[in-house]
């Protein structure tokens, strides 16, 4: 009898602006191996495969053939939009609507900013084309599609050397026949172009938002396709035959084939990975209500998790001053995208964020970052302007000989000289005073982000735990918690690569939606039931072709509703009853009233309600890697003491001799008080005076005030 246990291994790789993080998990034992390399902005696939090969070369790693799958989060699509490096794209729409992308919206992100300029459309006006056709809002044909006119337009496009085409015809979310015919003509004459139809990408009403989403899908498809093809080839060359999965903006994963054809769903895949990691960790430890802070080398991301569930919205924009935000269409700048995304706030406050003095003599930090190339001054890579990392080094919080596990030796003298030249002397401060000012300004920006996802969403921060990670997060976490009013902080093991671990703690998810727009006094429940079944059928087909690593699928149904006459709708999970009947409808309406009251402060029970969109998420569960308990329990914290060094604490009036601990030597159950510095290969945790730390059974650090 063969009692040998089948061991499976998974790899997660998160490409950030400064570092590329890799995590390898033994699904059988829970053993985790991590790697961190500098990102390669000119070709992110180089950093990706370096992180993978570094993992496979470590002691205890499996052979490449034993890797079940690789999950990847990337900002390739986002960066292409922000940097204006999208593919040359043509746009086809209904006759009379050629200027849809130029007109966009008539609102500004700042009401009184008269100097605001909308971002340039991703498609130039000379690449926008009209075709004769027209549907009404119910999908009925008012004017038939002129196929010959379509062929003439396609012939014009063929002469323009474009790489992609986006098609968005009026009301095609109701009737996709005209769009499908345009797509067939395009494919027959231009088979090598990336072609996106709005009825496939996002079949929902609101023409401009549907058009913008479809254009973005087409504009990034060639770049994303080339990138994913490159890393697929590199994985094969490294001997890995397992599936490649890609993180979506919503926090789920999908196949590489789906990512190539529908890249708009992965535009915010990088930030989503960290939020998923925090949500999974909090739920596993019995803390379903958490606020996550992911502070890397370029940005800091904050999100809120309530009852173990991430808040997912579809109101966000990318590029320029883009942001997410329920009920605001993601702000009024950037390019709107109507696909599900984890609701988070992202700001330019990472370890590489540059400190500078403005023309008014005020110290500023970010949003510009030194990134991976040239990087902070102390890296010695050619950077000359001081960053948050340089400030932390000058304040004694970082060990110049043990950054990234000793792989990068930091130059303290260069950091001091840069802060002195660009910040301290112009402001008449000491080097340490200027360094502390840099840290406090960055902290203030991050506290504002924490309040945006909590207080401004109607949540009391005192009811939540802060989970801080990313390479820089643990160094700032306690100060942020103090200022935001959060009573407890948790620092996971290997916080610098937590986002990569989050990639392995999610499921295969595929979203399908349909616009209905029907009032509560004229609802035909059989139509709703049939539409849900149709969307679930599409989900099953997609799951069969894209989810070899997951369990059989189940479905999450949701309905977007609003009071009749409102402009914005709320997204609500459907009642647990599977039968769509009057009981189901009454429960749905009551849950809408409650949600509206919580969101806007009132409910209007006598008002008519509209069901706007139906949503079905097809979920294929992937087994989560289990956490591994520490073998050693208790003991005195002195066994983990590496030594002492002077660290700047403002509450103590300056530098203070502070014990430095090796996190790998900490045992479960250890409790000790600050001040203290806890070092590990990918991050450094700062415990100020007046705070205490406790190590749980899985090696996580819980920090709380002693008062």
3D architecture notes:
- Helix content is 30%, strand content 27%.
- By secondary structure, it is an alpha+beta fold.
- Among the domains are: 9-80 and 226-266, ATPase, nucleotide binding domain (Nucleotidyltransferase, domain 5), CATH 3.30.420.40; 90-219, no CATH class; 508-620, Dna Ligase, domain 1 (2-Layer Sandwich), CATH 3.30.1490; 641-705, no CATH class.
- The longest helix has 31 residues, at 207-237.
- The protein starts with 8 loop residues before the first strand and ends with a strand.
- 51% of the residues are buried.
- Mean pLDDT is 89; it is low at 1-5 and 321-330.
Short description:
The chain contains 16 helices and 35 strands. It is α+β, with helices and mostly antiparallel strands and 707 residues long. The protein starts with 8 loop residues before the first strand and ends with a strand.
């Amino acid at each position: 009898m063969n009692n040998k246990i089948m061991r499976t291994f998974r790899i997660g790789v998160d490409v950030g602006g400064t570092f590329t993080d890799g995590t390898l998990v033994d699904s059988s034992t829970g053993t985790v191996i991590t790697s961190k390399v500098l990102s390669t902005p000119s070709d992110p696939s180089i950093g990706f495969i370096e992180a993978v090969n570094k993992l496979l070369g470590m002691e205890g790693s499996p052979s490449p053939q034993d890797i079940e799958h690789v999950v990847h989060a990337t900002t390739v699509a986002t960066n292409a939009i922000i940097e204006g490096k999208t593919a040359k794209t043509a746009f086809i729409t209904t006759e009379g609507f050629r200027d849809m992308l130029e007109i966009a919206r008539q609102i500004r992100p700042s009401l009184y900013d008269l100097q605001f300029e909308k971002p340039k459309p991703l498609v130039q006006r000379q690449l926008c084309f009209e075709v004769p056709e027209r549907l009404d809002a119910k999908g009925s044909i008012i004017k038939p599609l002129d196929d010959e006119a379509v062929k003439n337009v396609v012939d014009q496009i063929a002469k323009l050397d474009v790489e992609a085409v986006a098609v968005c015809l009026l009301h095609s979310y109701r009737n996709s026949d005209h769009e499908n015919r345009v797509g067939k003509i395009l494919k027959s004459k231009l088979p090598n172009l990336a072609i996106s139809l709005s009825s496939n990408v996002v079949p929902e009403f609101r023409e401009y938002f549907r058009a913008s989403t479809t254009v973005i899908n087409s504009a990034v498809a060639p770049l994303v396709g080339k990138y994913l093809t490159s890393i697929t080839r590199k994985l094969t060359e490294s001997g890995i035959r397992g599936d490649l999965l890609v993180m979506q903006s919503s926090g789920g994963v999908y196949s590489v084939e789906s990512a190539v054809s529908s890249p708009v769903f992965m535009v915010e895949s990088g930030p989503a990975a960290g939020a998923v990691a925090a949500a999974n960790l909090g739920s596993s430890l019995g803390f379903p209500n958490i606020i996550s802070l992911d502070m890397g080398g370029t940005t800091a991301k904050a999100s809120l998790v309530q009852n173990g569930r991430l808040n997912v919205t579809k109101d966000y924009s990318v590029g320029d001053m883009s942001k997410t935000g329920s009920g605001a269409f993601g702000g009024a700048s950037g390019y709107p995208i109507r696909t599900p995304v984890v609701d988070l706030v992202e700001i330019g406050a990472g370890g590489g964020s540059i400190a500078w003095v403005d023309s008014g003599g005020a110290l500023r930090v970010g949003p510009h970052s030194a990134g991976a190339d040239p990087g902070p001054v102390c890296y010695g890579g050619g950077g000359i302007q001081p960053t948050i990392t340089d400030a932390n080094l000058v304040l004694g919080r970082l060990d110049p000989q043990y950054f990234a596990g000793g792989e990068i030796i930091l130059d303290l003298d260069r950091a001091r000289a840069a802060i002195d030249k660009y910040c301290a002397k112009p402001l008449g401060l000491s080097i340490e005073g200027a360094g502390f000012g840099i840290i406090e300004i960055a902290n203030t920006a991050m506290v504002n982000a924490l309040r945006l996802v909590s207080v401004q969403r109607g949540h009391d921060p005192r009811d939540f735990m802060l989970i801080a990670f990313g390479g820089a997060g643990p160094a700032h976490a306690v100060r942020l918690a103090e200022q935001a009013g959060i009573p407890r902080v948790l620092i996971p093991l290997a916080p610098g690569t937590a986002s990569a671990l989050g990639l392995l703690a999610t499921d295969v998810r595929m979203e399908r939606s349909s616009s209905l727009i029907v009032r509560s006094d004229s609802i035909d429940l059989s139509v709703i039931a049939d539409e849900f079944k149709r969307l679930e059928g599409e989900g099953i087909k997609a799951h069969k072709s894209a989810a070899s690593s997951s369990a059989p699928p189940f479905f999450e149904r949701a309905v977007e509703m609003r009071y009749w006459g409102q402009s914005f709708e709320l997204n609500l999970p459907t009642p647990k009853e599977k039968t769509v009947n009057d009981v189901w409808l009454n429960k749905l309406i009551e849950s809408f009233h409650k949600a509206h009251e919580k969101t806007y402060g009132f409910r209007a029970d006598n008002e008519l309600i509209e069901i706007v969109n139906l949503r079905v998420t097809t979920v294929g569960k992937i087994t989560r890697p289990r956490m591994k308990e520490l073998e050693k329990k208790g003991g005195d914290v002195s066994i983990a003491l590496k030594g002492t060094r002077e660290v700047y604490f403002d509450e103590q009036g300056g530098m203070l001799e502070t014990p430095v601990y090796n996190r790998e030597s900490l045992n479960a159950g250890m409790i000790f008080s600050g001040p203290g510095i806890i070092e590990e290969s990918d991050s450094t945790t700062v415990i100020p005076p007046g705070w205490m730390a406790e190590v749980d059974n899985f090696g996580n650090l819980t920090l709380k005030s002693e008062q």
